[in-house]
Design a protein that fits this description.
Helix 3 runs parallel beside helix 4. The strands form three sheets. Strands 2-1-3-4-5-6-7-10 form an eight-stranded mixed beta sheet. Strands 11-12-16-13-14-15 form a six-stranded mixed beta sheet, with helices on both faces. Strands 8-9 form a two-stranded antiparallel ribbon. A hairpin with a 4-residue loop joins strand 6 and strand 7. It is of the alpha/beta class. The chain is globular, with a radius of gyration of 21 Å. The chain has two domains: 181 residues, UDP-N-acetylmuramoyl-L-alanine:D-glutamate ligase, CATH 3.40.1190.10; 130 residues, Mur ligase, C-terminal domain (Protein-Tyrosine Phosphatase, Chain A, Alpha-Beta Complex), CATH 3.90.190. 39% of the residues are buried. The termini are far apart.
């Protein structure tokens, strides 16, 4: 059976898509990441067999549009939906015929996760199917529990994994193969652990303000000493202000000891005061060296903001070993 999958929500679309691709390999179905732009294109929206609802959007207008579109989805499709998002549940309430498989961290979901554990190296959980389901081929799957490990930092990735694993089960993928595929998966610049020795460096520079908040929330449950934030500013001053405000709001809760901003507006890095809690540089290399000079045993350095740079990996290596 040829499948088209639609993945929706303000957060996690690319991560969930990458997980499904890693599981399915050469037999990956067509995956449509539904943004607020292509949601209006009904030919894209309705040309799917499976709809994965990760979370609601950040606009009541878009959520309202989604609610109207859902009314036109045929009964022979499948919804896989995050039951922990109340706005999303309200949107899906207009559905009268399409089967819904819910996932989340609450005990009422069809799919849930238990024994959740987050460290600086990985995220572990037990995938729990709590009732019988029937796959697209007609195979009956009875309730079961199975352990998973992700090489990604942050408990918010569990939602992406629950959705991807569930979709793969309905495609009759072997659960052992699914586990192996996800354990090996790393996604560049997505809470990627790029160094872990005396201190840890985590690269998460492809994000919006909503994912940034999720990152900060998840760091509360990870053991580390002090946090150093390296934040790459972009041309969007509004986005930069949101990042700065978010960092300031989390400063005490996350024990942030230094914030290092990278901005092309700075003319000469060497003329910038390096002793304050907030410092500015005009390039990645100097910023990383400053972060590493201030990192002690069990500290964490978080790279965030902006876009992923070509050659950033080399800059990290040079800063560590130069």
């Amino acid at each position: 059976m040829d499948l088209n999958l639609a993945i929706m929500g303000i957060l996690g679309k690319s991560t969930t898509s990458n997980m499904i691709k890693a599981i399915c390999k050469s037999k990956t179905p067509v995956i449509n990441e539904i943004t607020d732009v292509n949601m209006i294109q009904e030919d894209v929206f309705y040309n799917n067999n499976v709809y994965i609802f990760l979370n609601s959007y950040d606009s009541s207008l878009i959520n309202g549009r989604l609610k109207e579109l859902i009314k036109g989805i045929p009964a022979d499709r499948l919804f896989i939906a995050n039951a922990d998002d109340k706005i999303l549940l309200d949107i899906l309430a207009v559905n009268n015929s399409t089967p819904v498989i819910t996932f989340g961290l609450n005990g009422k979901s069809t799919i849930t996760a238990s024994s959740l554990s987050c460290t600086r190296e990985s995220t572990r959980f037990i995938y729990c199917l709590q009732r019988n389901v029937v796959t697209f081929s007609g195979r009956l799957i009875e309730p079961f529990e199975y352990p998973f490990e992700l090489k990604m930092v942050g408990n918010f990735h569990v939602y992406n994994a629950l959705a991807a694993i569930t979709a793969s089960i309905f495609m009759d993928k072997d659960i052992c193969d699914v586990r192996r595929s996800l354990k090996k998966l790393t996604i560049k610049h997505n809470m990627e652990v790029v160094y872990d020795n005396r201190f840890t460096i985590i690269d998460n520079r492809c994000m919006n303000i909503y994912s940034l908040e999720k990152v900060f929330e998840s760091l509360q449950f990870i053991d580390y000493n002090k946090l150093i934030v390296v934040c790459q500013l972009i041309e969007d001053s509004g986005f930069n202000d949101e990042m700065k405000n978010s960092i300031e709001n989390w400063c005490d809760a996350l024990d942030i000891k230094k914030v290092i901003f990278i901005s092309s507006d700075i003319k000469q890095s060497e003329n910038i005061n390096k002793d304050g809690k907030e410092v500015f540089f005009n390039n990645m290399g100097d910023s990383l060296r400053c972060a590493i000079e201030n990192a002690f045993e069990n500290d964490m350095i978080l790279l965030m903001g902006g876009k992923a740079e070509h050659g950033a990996g080399e800059a990290i290596f040079d800063a560590l070993y130069s």
